[in-house]
Design brief:
55% of the residues lie in helices and 3% in strands. The protein has 177 residues and is mostly helical.
């Protein structure tokens, strides 16, 4: 597909973002176009450049991207962890370290992960929208909205399953609310 400026664009199979073609390598872990994977890398670079301000959102950024780019046939633990991180942030007030600790606890105490089917629509915001939101304040705000949309895009029964698994497997001390 050609954009108005004559460049070739194609939609990302995960988030649907229409992006110019890229020679970025495929992201084997995600259902993402090379162009969307490149945007994700650029967003990480922006985060690192502004780590003092955006570092607290590092895990949230990873989980939002993971929730929007579930690869068919990938290990079932991936989307569970992405949604666990979004749940812990938005509904339990947990940050980077608590979420990563929860992932470790869950990985070492459970192995019958459910097969989650991604929703048809994964939210209107994408990593591209976050990256191009503007300065640090705007990126911070957009990242929070993006992650919230990614969490809320999943069906309520899936979110309830994630809540249940998390509460069963993760000690309460990792929940901040």
């Amino acid at each position: 597909m050609k954009s108005p400026d004559g460049t070739h664009e194609s939609p990302c199979p995960g988030c649907g973002a229409l992006l110019p073609a890229s020679d970025w390598p495929e992201a084997p872990k995600y259902n993402a176009s090379p162009a969307c994977a490149a945007v994700s890398g650029e967003l990480l670079g922006f985060e690192v450049e502004h780590a003092a301000r955006l570092g607290y959102l590092h895990q949230l950024r990873i989980d939002a991207y993971g929730a929007q780019h579930v690869k068919p046939g990938a290990p079932r633990i991936g989307p569970v962890f992405a949604l666990n991180g979004l749940y812990m942030y938005f509904e339990r007030g947990s940050g980077n370290l608590d979420v990563r600790t929860a992932h470790g606890i869950m990985a070492n105490s459970y192995d019958d992960w459910p097969q989650l089917t991604p929703p048809a629509t994964v939210g209107s915001l994408t990593a591209y929208d976050v990256l191009h939101a503007g300065g640090v304040d705007a990126v911070e705000s957009a990242l929070l909205r993006w992650a919230q949309e990614a969490w809320e895009a999943w069906p309520e029964d899936t979110r309830e399953l994630i809540r249940k698994l998390t509460v069963e497997l993760v000690p309460e001390r990792y929940f901040r609310r």
